[in-house]
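Reviewer 2 asked us to include a model.

Predict the structure of this chain.
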Amino acid sequence: MIFHSLNVPGGSASVFLSLALALQEQGHNVHVFCYYFDPEYCFPELNKKLKIHCIKKIDSRSHRINTNSIWIRLLLGYEYYFNARKIYRLLKKFKFDLLYAAEASAYIPALIYKKKKSVRVYWSVFDPISLVDNKRPGLMTHKYRWFATLLKIHNLFDTRNIRKIDRVIVPTKKMKKQLDLFYGISASVFPTAGVRVQESRKKHISLIERRLQERFNFRKEDENILFSNGHLLPHRRYEDVLHALRSLVKIGYRCKYIISGSNKFDPNYFVYLQALVKKLHLDDYVILDTDFKSNEEILGYYQYCDIFLFVSVEQTWGLAPFEAMLCKKPVIISKGVGCSEVLTDKKDALIVQERSPEQIAECIEHLVKNKLLYKKVSEGGYERTLVDFTYQNIAAKLINMMNASGN
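Predicted model (structure tokens):
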């Protein structure tokens, strides 16, 4: 299994490592390969149980990451074509039955290995480089026209390589339609993002109560706790929840909105959110928790909150909603989030239109006032997650797919 950079505790890395661990627990011999690796920062509770081979160990917490920097993006482009190939030097020492690549550049060393040793290659893709820059607002193609031209050149090479992959798997029908058209392939719809059930059974609310008291001088009384988890990036649309919160506060609702996520990926968006909180006079109602949190603390936040919100635009899938559902919390999700495709409104989630503060406020109000709806959505989301989105179930289905296509 190949993932270019295991150095940040993001959703994609969590999915990849959790799936690797689930496959290993089911008796398969799994090796993980990457270029960058930070064993103490990128889910140590997962990576320490796996055989991980890397080119370079780094301390990610000492680096500032800004993917809106043109120089960082050019460096990533260099790594896409050159540094990723160094992973093949590690791969060629072993004999594998199948290579499973995640992230865009991870399939490059896999295809080199395939050419040399004739094995199948799977590519599980969430954010293909060729499509993301043209769809998410405010990224490089909109700021630098020459970068858009460079991306088009990249697309020509990218398409040629992707057509050599034995099976491309994507999480949603929407993404399949986009990739099939863009690359001239036939992708398979197979969500690989899930939840780790055992972890959710341990209670960590006390960690969060202490964290909020010590860092933000907050102790819950009769507030409804709204919570969002995800790095602070423009497509998350946290501003929509802030506007919804403002309208609820005006009519007397007592709420506290906690946003958990790193501000290092787009510092300008973080500054914008801070200014918006002040402009809307929400200083006493919003907590921006941007510091590093352990996996136990993140789980504690899910357990501590009353309502979870995930209202992104152009979000390929969305792991956080299922983590909240596993903690029996009702989820408000936008149609811009890929996993809304597999959820049912008012059954296992409340689904709103993108960029709709009014609908978000209405859903929050319904959940606060209607205990039966709150219970129905909470239990529906929990049951749906257990049936379809545990890593044990996902790993078993993935192996069945691999076996079926292997003969």
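The mean pLDDT is 90. The longest strand covers residues 31-37. We have added this to the supplementary material.
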